[in-house]
Amino acid sequence: RFMNRPSLDDYMKADRIIPVRDARGERSMVAEYIFTGMRLFEGISAESFENTLGLAFPADIAGRLKALSDSGLVRVFDENNFRAGFTLEGMMVMDTLLGEILEGYI
Question: Is pTM beyond 0.85 here?
C-alpha cells in the first residue's frame, strides 16, 4: 500500500506525486479498515476486506461481530459473504464496541 508524503511541505514542494510505501503492520491495517468501515451505514464485507488488503477476513473479528449481532448492536447482512454493520443502537455506542471488536489489533 502506498500513500502521499506525510510532510505537507514536502508534498507541496514536489513537482510530481511521489508515493511512499506505507510501512504499517498487518494488524494496524486490519484495525483501520474495520474502524473506518464500521462507521458507514453499509458496514464492512469480507469480500471487500480481502480485495482491499489482500488478507483473509479475521475469524476472531467475525466471531465478535456475530456475538454482538445476538445483542442487537450489529446486524449481519449476509452469512455466506460475511457482511456486517452497526444497528442504530450500536451506532450510539460504536466507539466502545469498536474497542471490543478490535481488541488485540489496536
Answer: no
Pairwise CA distance, residues 49 & 55, whole Å: 7
pLDDT in tens, 74-85: 999 877 789 999
Higher pLDDT, 7 or 48: 48
- Scored b (16 or more CB within 10 A) or e, 53-81 reads eeeebbeebeebbeebbeeebbbbeeeee
Domain count within the chain: 1
Cβ contacts of residue 36 below 8 Å, gap of 6+? none
**CATH number, domain with residue 47:** 1.10.10
Residue 40 has which C-alpha cell? 458507514
Domain residues for the domain of 47 are 24-101
